[in-house]
Amino acid sequence: MHQHNINLALQILPQVPSEQVYAVVDEAIAVIQQSGVKYRVCPFETVMEGPYDQLMDIVKRTQEVCFKAGAGQLLVYIKIQNNSLGPVTIEDKTGKYDG
């Protein structure tokens, strides 16, 4: 597996009372923020940029903190863009739309 950067979109839907959903998701986003990878929080998911193995480790840790925050079950949706020829960047897809 190539160790160049990929893009990974992560959406976690925790099974908690509706008034607690954002608080639990905020715990997952904090893991991403503290990881040091480039990321962008979007309305439905958070997109990260980094090496495959590092991003998959972050995915694992985000789930662990959601369980610690009280989620009994999680629905986790992951989308990955990988390119055998080189890195994938967030800017390649969205840069032309940035202010």
Automatic annotation (TrEMBL):
Annotated ranges, domain Thiamine-binding protein: 9-97
A Pfam family for this UniProt protein?
Thiamine_BP
Q: Which domain of life is it from?
A: Bacteria
Output the Gene3D superfamilies linked to this UniProt entry.
3.30.70.930
- Report the family membership: Belongs to the UPF0045 family.
Give the protein's recorded name.
Thiamine-binding protein
Q: Which organism is it from?
A: Chitinophaga chungangae
